[in-house]
């Protein structure tokens, strides 16, 4: 269980690094940090529980049970924090993405992150491809298209044209 929790916490933190330009709230990682701390404590307590079982110590097993209950409460807290902050993170990401949209020029670091995000999440824009029509980049290109990162991966001839929205 400790190894599984460590993996989940590490995966969340590692995934956060890919999207840290969009998540400016440092509290977004709080549930993942709690999960990793709980995993470390679970591993140590698991060893103690094994030793108490082998020695058949009633006090050791009682202490082990109490600690397991505390760990369960911490896991529930991490789950609740994840649910509570979900909407806040969603709002923060949308606001940050809108500001990154305004900085998009196809060449800068924000553009690279935006392209990566759209390719990885198989999306286009904050809500949909029409979000691009209000950006400075869209108006400056004058070719009525969105970045190629908006194209579906199985569409090899996609040009990002808004005239073919089925390819986006």
From TrEMBL:
Predominant place of localization: membrane
A Pfam family recorded for this sequence: Tetraspanin
GO cellular component: plasma membrane
Transmembrane segments: 28-54, 61-85
SUPFAM superfamilies referenced in this protein's UniProt entry, alphabetically: Tetraspanin
Topology in membrane: Multi-pass membrane protein
Alphabetized UniProt keyword annotations: Membrane, Transmembrane, Transmembrane helix
Subcellular location: Membrane
Protein name: TSN36 protein
């Amino acid at each position: 269980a400790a190894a599984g929790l460590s993996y989940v916490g590490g995966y969340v933190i590692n995934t956060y690094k890919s999207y840290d330009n969009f998540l400016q709230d440092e509290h977004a990682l709080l549930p993942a940090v709690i999960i990793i701390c709980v995993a470390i404590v679970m591993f140590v307590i698991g060893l103690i529980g094994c030793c108490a079982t082998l020695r058949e110590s009633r006090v050791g097993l009682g202490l082990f049970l109490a600690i397991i209950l505390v760990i369960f409460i911490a896991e529930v807290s991490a789950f609740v924090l994840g649910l509570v902050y979900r909407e806040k993170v969603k709002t923060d990401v949308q606001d940050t993405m809108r500001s990154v949209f305004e900085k998009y020029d196809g060449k800068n670091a924000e553009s690279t992150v935006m392209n990566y995000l759209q390719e990885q999440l198989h999306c286009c824009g904050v809500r949909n491809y029409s979000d691009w029509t209000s950006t400075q980049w869209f108006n400056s290109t004058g070719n009525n298209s969105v970045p190629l990162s908006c194209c579906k991966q199985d569409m090899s001839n996609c040009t990002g044209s808004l005239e073919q929205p089925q390819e986006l």
